[in-house]
């Protein structure tokens, strides 16, 4: 199946759906005229129309017109939506739930996504989804049990990274550098470190060791971070977000 021939539908047309659709359109994976989004109100649909997508208030129409369907309502709405669309779901459909896993920032920027397949989704469907989502960034297929962990690591993780960037910059402000410049340098530092991690595939502990001159500035700074239990605190944060995602999925 050619990606350009695909008809992609979104049940729910809010932030997550919009971010994903923008990524697919920007990458040219699907023409806007092949994208159909549904929502009860026009609140979000106007923006879809402006980008050339088709819209409807009827969820069933999305199923009737699309092969690949993203379910992008809030989780508490989803059971009712599933009930509503069930009669229209056929074997040709690939249904993807966004109800857990990734934030809008992840979709648009940080670009780390994971998906897990249900029992009737085959290799072809998984490959197609991976090819489409890869246009928005890194995309990996994982066992379903990793989905909540991904939320704790990456979905919520962008916020921990912003907090760290803010702290880095404020340290520089404290030492006399202007805030705007400090923020830009902090962001560039995170970007550079992330690129090197991805490009080399090295364990971060090895990369960290490589930049520590004996008796130098970096090891003095790292000693302070260890005293502040940065590592244990961040591990606790990932655990807390993962557990919260798991609880929300069970609600
Ligand atoms: N786990 C994570 O890391 C994570 C992070 C963020 C989001 N998410 C998931 O992504 C999903 C969407 O979140 P969001 O932030 O995009 O929400 P959102 O911006 O509030 O969008 C929800 C959309 O669903 C529509 N909707 C409401 N009831 C509906 C119904 N009965 N049938 C069809 N559409 C309906 C809304 O319509 P209107 O336009 O009329 O309001 C809106 O377009 C959620 O399940 C959320 O849990 C997961």
Tell me the layout of helices and strands.
Elements: E1 8-11, H1 15-26, E2 35-38, H2 45-50, E3 54-56, H3 59-65, E4 68-71, H4 78-85, E5 94-97, H5 104-110, E6 112-115, H6 123-133, E7 138-141, H7 147-155, H8 157-174, H9 179-200, H10 204-210, H11 217-227, H12 230-250
Parallel strand pairs: 1-2, 1-4, 2-3, 4-5, 6-7
Helix pairs in contact: 1-5, 7-12, 8-9
The structure holds NADP nicotinamide-adenine-dinucleotide phosphate.
The site of NADP nicotinamide-adenine-dinucleotide phosphate has 29 residues, from helix 1 and helix 7.
How does this structure look, described?
This protein is α/β, with parallel strands linked by helices and 251 residues long. The protein has 2 domains: 3-143, NAD(P)-binding Rossmann-like Domain (Rossmann fold, 3-Layer(aba) Sandwich); 155-250, Orthogonal Bundle (ProC C-terminal domain-like fold), CATH 1.10.3730. Helix content is 55%, strand content 11%. It has 12 helices and 7 strands. It has a 5-stranded parallel β-sheet with strand order 3-2-1-4-5. Strand 4, helix 4 and strand 5 form a beta-alpha-beta unit. Helix 8 crosses helix 9. Mean pLDDT is 87; it is low at 101-109. The site of NADP nicotinamide-adenine-dinucleotide phosphate has 29 residues, from helix 1 and helix 7.
């Amino acid at each position: 199946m050619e990606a350009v021939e695909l008809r992609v539908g979104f049940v729910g047309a809010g932030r997550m759906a919009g971010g994903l659709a923008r990524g697919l359109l920007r990458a040219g994976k699907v023409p806007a005229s092949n994208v159909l989004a549904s929502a009860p109100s026009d609140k979000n649909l106007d923006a879809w129309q402006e980008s050339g997508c088709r819209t409807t208030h009827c969820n069933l129409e999305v199923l009737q017109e699309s092969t690949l369907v993203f379910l992008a309502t809030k989780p508490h709405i989803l059971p009712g939506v599933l009930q509503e669309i069930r009669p229209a779901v056929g074997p040709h459909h690939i249904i993807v739930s966004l109800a857990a896993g990734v934030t809008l920032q992840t979709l648009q920027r940080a670009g780390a996504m994971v998906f897990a397949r249900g029992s009737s989704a085959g290799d072809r469907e998984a490959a197609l989804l991976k090819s489409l989502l890869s246009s928005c960034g890194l995309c990996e297929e994982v066992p379903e049990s990793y989905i909540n962990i991904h939320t704790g690591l990456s979905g919520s993780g962008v916020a921990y990274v912003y907090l760290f960037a803010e702290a880095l910059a404020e340290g520089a402000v404290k030492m006399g550098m202007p805030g705007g410049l400090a923020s830009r340098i902090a962001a560039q530092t995170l970007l550079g470190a992330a690129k090197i991690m991805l490009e080399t595939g090295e364990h971060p502990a090895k990369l960290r060791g490589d930049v520590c001159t004996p008796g130098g500035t970096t090891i003095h700074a790292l000693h302070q971070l260890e005293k502040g239990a940065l590592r244990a605190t961040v591990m606790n944060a990932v655990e807390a977000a993962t557990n919260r995602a798991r609880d929300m999925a069970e609600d």
